[in-house]
């Protein structure tokens, strides 16, 4: 199975979906570690409950962003992953991590619309009638990397950022499980932003 390190900051429902899928050997993924940028993330508790090693790498414990990124790259690298998944990890990754690892991110909007940390609220405030989620490879920009998969989610009358995000997350979890499994089992090639999973 492909060795996968998952990076988290929040509740970890996407992480949970990956852990659940990985109980089937045919899925081809072993979640070998879960890393967070802060203590107390509920996602870390999920990892512990499943006996998965965890680590925490906090920006304020480092002299600057670059030192933090180098330390994070080292902690990820200690688990020799084939793939890194950013699942609700609310930090921009730097060169040290990105040069060493293929990183997949899941984002709660149809990129390139609404990048950044407030995608769902931004989409709602803009008044779009359709939004959704995107799985993409991470590059040095903010949510700019090559797109792997997208799923559309209609906005409903009366939606709040919370209600809309919950509906997005329901389809997002299946999208992420599908994409990560395909990458794990088949790998990928990248030409001019076009990702091919053989
Ligand atoms: C997900 O919707 C993910 O797309 C989003 O955080 C949520 C994490 O949920 N990520 C971002 O907004 C990144 N900019 P989870 O902790 O339950 O998996």
From TrEMBL:
Site for Raises pKa of active site His, residues: 143
Pfam families per the UniProt record, alphabetical: Formyl_trans_N
InterPro entries xrefs: Formyl_transf_N (IPR002376), Formyl_transf_N_sf (IPR036477), GART (IPR004607)
Enzyme class name: transferase
Alphabetical list of SUPFAM superfamilies matching this protein: Formyltransferase (SSF53328)
Active-site residues, record numbering mapped to chain: 107
Domain called Formyl transferase N-terminal: residue spans: 3-180
Gene Ontology molecular function terms on file: phosphoribosylglycinamide formyltransferase activity
Entries under HAMAP family matching the protein: PurN (MF_01930)
Protein name: Phosphoribosylglycinamide formyltransferase
Native organism: Ornithinimicrobium faecis
Organism classification: Bacteria, Bacillati, Actinomycetota, Actinomycetes, Micrococcales
């Amino acid at each position: 199975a492909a060795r996968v390190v998952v990076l988290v900051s929040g509740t970890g429902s996407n992480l949970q979906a990956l852990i659940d899928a990985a109980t089937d050997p045919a899925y081809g993924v072993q979640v070998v570690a879960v890393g967070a940028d802060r203590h107390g993330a509920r996602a870390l508790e999920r990892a512990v409950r499943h006996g998965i090693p965890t680590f925490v790498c906090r920006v304020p414990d480092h002299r600057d962003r670059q030192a933090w990124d180098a330390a994070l790259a080292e902690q990820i690298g200690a688990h020799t992953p084939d793939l890194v998944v950013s699942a609700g990890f609310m930090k921009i990754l730097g060169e040290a991590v990105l040069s060493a690892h293929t990183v997949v991110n899941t984002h709660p909007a149809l990129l390139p619309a609404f990048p950044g940390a407030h995608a769902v609220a931004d989409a709602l405030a803009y008044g779009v009638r359709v939004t959704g989620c995107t799985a993409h490879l991470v590059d040095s920009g903010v949510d700019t990397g090559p797109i792997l998969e997208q799923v559309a989610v209609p906005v409903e009358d009366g939606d709040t950022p919370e209600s809309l995000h919950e509906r997005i997350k329901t389809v997002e979890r299946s999208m992420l499980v599908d994409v990560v499994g395909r990458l794990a089992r088949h790998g990928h090639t990248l030409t001019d932003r076009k990702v091919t999973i053989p």
